[in-house]
């Protein structure tokens, strides 16, 4: 099996719900990705449910929904699921109501923890029951030091997510995982994480949508696609954010997408599956094979070339061959 799926009808007809990442998929920084509003609108018009699933714990769901609406993608609060909500549910399963929590993060995380009955505190003295860390751009050294003091004194440690980077309108910036690692370095304690790539967020989102045939949409192999695979849901990699075609070629089995598209506009398109053709794989006019550990790709269509190349490369990699993909062009690699 190539790992890629195919459908001769649009993706929004093949799946009843899309569990959609935000950063790098719907928007980059404060601006919508140009094709996102129309792509999502077409999917909704076709009857597809949309739930936005984000590892960003800094904002409340209503704030996220309002932001998306302003960007031309009308969204209701119940259509947003954040890592703050997911980690708060994790904390509520581990600790009794009323437990004291030192929050390192923004208002979205504070609200979510309050809603599950936790008591928020502002200091490591006296020692709180737990520290919960989520991304916020104003998190400071002082915040991380206070968290370190509490954890060293015996507080439990939870993280909303472990994304090392986040894309924005200026490029790539440190994510919550990078900030969590500062506290890990100071304490030696590794926190459990509720966000992607853990599968629970996707399962919660699918249940929230009442979905029978959900799909995951993301720009990151190590969070969105890995988490979707862990949940048992097909995943669409869009090439508008962190990972590009070369990354897809080199993805380990647990991170591989089921579909690959340029952007959210591909929800309205059929997605041809690679088919065996002699010693290689074909997608329409594109053909790829691995010869003496070297990937060879020919034919038309950048995305079709990439799909065929993924089929050939993944097959060889799974057989223990270290495939050389250098020098291969026309496979949707970011410049």
TrEMBL record:
PANTHER family: 4-NITROPHENYLPHOSPHATASE-RELATED, D-GLYCEROL 3-PHOSPHATE PHOSPHATASE. InterPro entries: HAD-like_sf (IPR036412), HAD-SF_hydro_IIA (IPR006357), HAD_sf (IPR023214). It comes from the Bacteria. This is Haloacid dehalogenase. The lineage of its organism: Bacteria, Bacillati, Actinomycetota, Actinomycetes, Micrococcales. It holds the Pfam family Hydrolase_like.
């Amino acid at each position: 099996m190539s790992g890629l799926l195919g459908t001769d009808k649009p993706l929004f007809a093949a799946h009843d719900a899309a569990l959609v990442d935000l950063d790098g998929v719907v928007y980059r920084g404060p601006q919508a990705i140009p094709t996102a509003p129309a792509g999502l609108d077409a999917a909704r018009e076709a009857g597809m449910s949309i739930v936005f699933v984000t590892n960003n714990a800094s904002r409340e769901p209503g704030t996220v929904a309002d932001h998306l609406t302003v960007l031309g993608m009308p969204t209701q609060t119940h259509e947003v699921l954040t890592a703050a909500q997911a980690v708060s549910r994790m904390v509520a399963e581990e600790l009794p109501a009323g437990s004291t929590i030192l929050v390192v993060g923004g208002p979205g995380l504070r609200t979510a923890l309050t809603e599950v009955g936790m008591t928020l505190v502002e200091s490591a003295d006296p020692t709180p029951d737990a520290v919960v860390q989520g991304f916020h751009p104003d998190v400071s050294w002082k915040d991380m030091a206070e968290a370190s003091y509490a954890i060293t004194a015996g507080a439990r440690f939870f993280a909303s997510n472990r994304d090392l980077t986040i894309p924005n309108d200026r490029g790539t910036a440190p994510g919550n995982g990078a900030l969590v690692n500062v506290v890990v370095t100071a304490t030696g304690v590794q926190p459990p994480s509720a966000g992607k790539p853990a599968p629970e967020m996707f399962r919660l989102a699918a249940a929230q949508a009442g979905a029978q045939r959900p799909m995951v949409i993301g720009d990151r192999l190590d969070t969105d696609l890995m988490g979707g695979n862990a949940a048992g849901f097909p995943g669409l990699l869009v090439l508008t954010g962190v990972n590009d075609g070369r990354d897809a070629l080199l993805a380990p089995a647990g991170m591989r997408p089921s579909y690959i598209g340029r952007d959210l506009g591909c929800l309205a398109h059929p997605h041809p599956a690679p088919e065996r053709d002699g010693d290689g794989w074909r997608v329409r006019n594109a053909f790829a094979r691995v010869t003496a550990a070297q990937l060879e790709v020919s034919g038309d269509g950048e995305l079709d070339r990439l799909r065929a190349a993924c089929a050939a490369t993944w097959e060889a990699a799974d057989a223990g061959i270290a495939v050389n993909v250098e020098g291969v062009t026309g496979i949707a690699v970011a410049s």
